[in-house]
Each structure stands twice: as C-alpha cells, then as structure tokens.
Design a protein that fits this description.
By secondary structure, the chain is of the alpha+beta class. It folds into three domains: 112 residues, no CATH class; 108 residues, Band 7 domain (Tetrahydropterin Synthase, Chain A); 51 residues, no CATH class. Helix content is 45%, strand content 21%. The chain contains seven helices and twelve strands. The strands form four sheets. Strands 9, 10, 11 and 12 form a four-stranded antiparallel beta sheet that branches. A hairpin with a 3-residue loop joins strand 6 and strand 7. The longest helix has 41 residues. It is rod-shaped, with a radius of gyration of 40 Å. The N terminus is likely disordered.
Length: 319
C-alpha cells in the first residue's frame, strides 16, 4: 500500500545586507579593478614587458567579482516580499521594503516563456502582499431545490505565507481563481434561492450568513496556498433566463396571496370588534341572521378592491 505525504512549507524571515553599503563596496571594487588595470598597462608600455599571468588574472577576477556583486541588488516596495532560493533550497523571505543586497547566486525564478519582443520571461520570486480582488464570472448553478440560478461573487484576498504560495501550489493566482469558482458553486448548491422553510437560510434573504459561509469555505480551500481571505461577497444573484419569467410570476402571485391574507385577517378583526362593541354598548340587538348579513356586508366593504357605494335603508331593518 503506497501512501503520499503532503509537505507544507513554512515561511521564515531572513536578514540581508543594505544595498547602499554594498553599492559603495561594489563601486570600490570597480574603481580598484580599473586603477590596477590602467597601472598595469602603463607599466608594460613603459618597460616594454609582458604582464605576468597572475596580474592579468587578478584584475579580471576583480571585474568578475564586481559584476557578481552588482547582480545581488534588488528593491522591495511596501507590502512586497522576495523569496530567496539558493541552488533549489529555500533560504528565507525578505519582507522589509527598501534597497537590499543578497547573495547573487539566489535564484531569480524559472523561465516561463520566451517572448520575441521581451526575451525570456521569468517567474520572479517577488510576491505582492497587497490585498487583491477576484471578480468571478456569472456562474450558472442549481440551487438547493434544483432551480437554475446565476451567481457571481467578489473575493478580497492576500498572500499570508510566501513559502506556501511559492512551493506548495504551481500557480497561486490561478489556484485562487479555480478554487474560488468551485467554492461558489458548492455554496450555491447548499442554499435555496428564496422562499425556504421556516428559519431556513436562503441566498437572497440571508446575505450576511451566506457571505460568511463562503468566506469560511474559501479559507479552508486556499489555506494550502498560503492565501488569507479578507472578504467574500455576492455581486450577482438571479434566476437563470429560462425560468426567470415563471419565477417572477410566482413571486408576484405569492405577494398577492400574502397581501390578501393580511387584508382578510384585518377585516375579520374589524368585524369582530364592531359586533363586540355593538353588543357591549347595547346599541342594537341583532339575531344570528342579521349578524350574518352584517358580517357579509362588512367583509365586502373591507376586502373589496374598488370603492363600495353605500345604499341607505330608509325602512325597517326587518322588512
């Protein structure tokens, strides 16, 4: 039985030298190499002799050392970091902004492509630590009840661990994109669009709870890439076009039914109050048949959509 073990990288800080100090050293090396070379040329011309091999090697060596020192300079802006790799071994991460110098043999990254207009394009081990936005495309998903919906979200994320982002995933930006879309699809299928059961969370009415659930799932998925999710919010939510009109009519019908229920409930309460007040005040004594007629008339007046034209009875109530 073969098993695999995932190795989780861990970022560790490393101290590097100030670039300004090493710039002075590098200029001094170039100046010494030039001065020694000029001096050697003058001596050989004046004495008509050939220079010794060690003299030539010394001066060439100084130029090579000065060139190597020059290749170790790099700068970092605020909220930037650089991962230092020496012959395939991770040595540490620099997070301090400014002008720095490090071992010139630290890797600059692997070649991603060769573009004729730009030459070789390197995957530099310089990583931005700034907050970034990922706006997903409109995804077509089935909700908890199988209704096709369109959903999109915006995710605010940043790199928290540069070692994990560099070594534990192939391309952390693409990893964020793919995993975010997968998390949005999974989250949308776990909730109904609207009109859920009693106390049920829905995509349309429970925005804060749904956003918190999406952020939690994203953080669990992106932790492997050393990414921290700051915020996740839905930016688009709608029924798919093929059922949008039918769902709109259903919503309108449900709204009408809900309004009618409130009207009827209010009308019954008002009729009950009217009969109770008439009986308690002794204004008039009605038998059951007259009460039924009064209830019918009041319900028509209170529940009707159009205004009711009253008819004044000038005769006896029992005629």
């Amino acid at each position: 039985m073969n098993g695999t073990t995932d190795t989780v990288s861990k970022e560790r800080p490393i101290r590097v030298l100030s670039g300004w100090i090493m710039l002075v050293v590098d200029l001094a090396l170039f100046a010494a190499a030039i001065w020694l070379t000029v001096t050697l040329i003058q001596e050989t011309k004046s004495q008509h002799i050939h220079p010794a091999w060690w003299q030539v090697v010394t001066r060439v060596g100084l130029f090579i050392i000065a060139g190597l020192v020059m290749s170790g300079f790099f700068t970092l802006q605020p909220n930037e970091a650089r991962v230092l790799i020496l012959f395939g071994a991770y040595k540490g991460t620099v997070r301090d902004s400014g002008f720095h110098w490090a071992n010139p043999f630290y890797s600059k990254g692997s070649v991603l492509a060769v573009v004729p207009s730009r030459g070789k394009v390197y995957q530099m081990h310089k990583i931005s630590l700034r907050a970034r936005n990922f706006n997903s495309e409109k995804l077509k998903v089935n909700d908890k009840r199988g209704n096709p919906i369109e959903i999109a979200a915006v995710i605010v994320w940043r790199v928290a661990d540069t070692a994990q982002a560099t070594f534990d995933v192939d391309d952390y930006e693409n990893y964020v994109r793919v995993q975010s879309e997968s998390a949005i699809r999974h989250m949308a299928s776990a909730y109904a669009y609207d009109q859920g059961e009693e106390n049920e969370l829905t995509l349309r009415s429970s925005v804060d709870e749904v956003s918190a659930s999406l952020r939690t799932e994203l953080q669990a998925r992106l932790h492997k890439a050393g990414v921290e999710v700051d915020e996740a919010r839905l930016t688009h939510l709608a029924y798919a076009p093929e059922i949008a009109q039918a769902m709109l009519r259903r919503q309108q019908a449900e709204a009408i039914i809900a309004a009618r229920q409130k009207i009827v409930h209010g009308a019954v309460s008002m009729v009950h109050m009217a009969l109770k007040e008439l009986a308690e005040q002794g204004v008039v004594t009605l038998d059951e048949e007259r009460k039924a007629a009064m209830v019918s008339n009041l319900m028509v007046v209170l529940c009707g959509e159009a205004e009711v034209q009253p008819v004044v009875n000038t005769g006896t109530l029992y005629a």
